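hiii, so i know i said id send this last week but things got crazy w the move. better late than never?? heres the sequnce for the chain we talked about at the cafe, plus the structure i predicted for it. fair warning i was half asleep when i ran it
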Amino acid sequence: MDYKKQMRYAINMAANFKYTAKPNPVVGALILERDQIICEGFHERYGGPHAEVNCLEQLEKLRNKQRENLTLLCTLEPCNHFGKTPPCADGIIKSGVKNVVIGSVDPNPKVSGSGIKKMQENGIKVTQGVLDEEARKINEYFFFKHTNNRPFITIKIASSKDGKSHDAKGSTTWITSEDSRNDVQLLRAEHDVILTGGNTVRNDNPRMNARVNFPVNQPKKILLSSQKIWDMNFHFFKNADFEITNETDLSKIMRSSFLKDSSSIMVEAGPKLVNAFLKNGLCDRLVIYKSQVEIGNDGVNWFENDNVLDKYGFKIKSNYTIGPDIKMVLENG
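okay and structure toks below
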């Protein structure tokens, strides 16, 4: 049987919970009787029941179903370890379902392949790799982290038409439009962590949270600064899980315990820190919001020269207007 239609449905539905399940991956699970969906479940919130558990709870209410004739379809390999919840592989074995279809194998070393192996050892037929690429795409940051041993890093900048960050005199007026600033809120909502530097906090007093009109797990925050004492009344620190570090080795920061469970970081900082990330090869996606405003010769350049694409190997992923501004998304490699 071709399970692509049902897998695509599970993938699309699971993606609806990307703002509340993070930093966990989003997962969808279905119970099929022949080709008909009779139960469905999703990982809806971080720390809550996994998709398979929610799905099997529905199955328990259908007492007249012959379990061995049913198929459980899951977008990501069921876990086989104790975390915030018990192993999903054990629940599937106990349920009596004898056929399991998986989108992608979990890249987490704690799981990778072990969930499949345990189910097979208990008489369950496992089919894997159905819409594997699509299943990976909805958990892009999660797969990146476990493949590269560090979080996915997005750098976001707001630039004037002539490539400036701000007026050298210290003006804090907005460069980009309200449309662009609203779009940034969505970008923040997607990420697990926001990182910035001391000058940005002191000069701009930013909130750097995701101000959206839907439920979201707010990103944690990292402040890179050698300043030892801070006024906690700065907006950056309010209602947030944050860490202040004077560590200058960016690679060490990426491996810090504070980021242990995080799969993605969004860097919102000034030119000096942004260029430090670029020079260290720590930027996977560069998002530039460019306005039609020109600051002039007194402005501070974002980049030391204009060939950032060639110098760091970025390619243009998308380039389109957003309000009066232009949003350009560049990706490394």
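btw The first strand starts at residue 28 and ends at 33. thought thatd interest u
miss u guys!!
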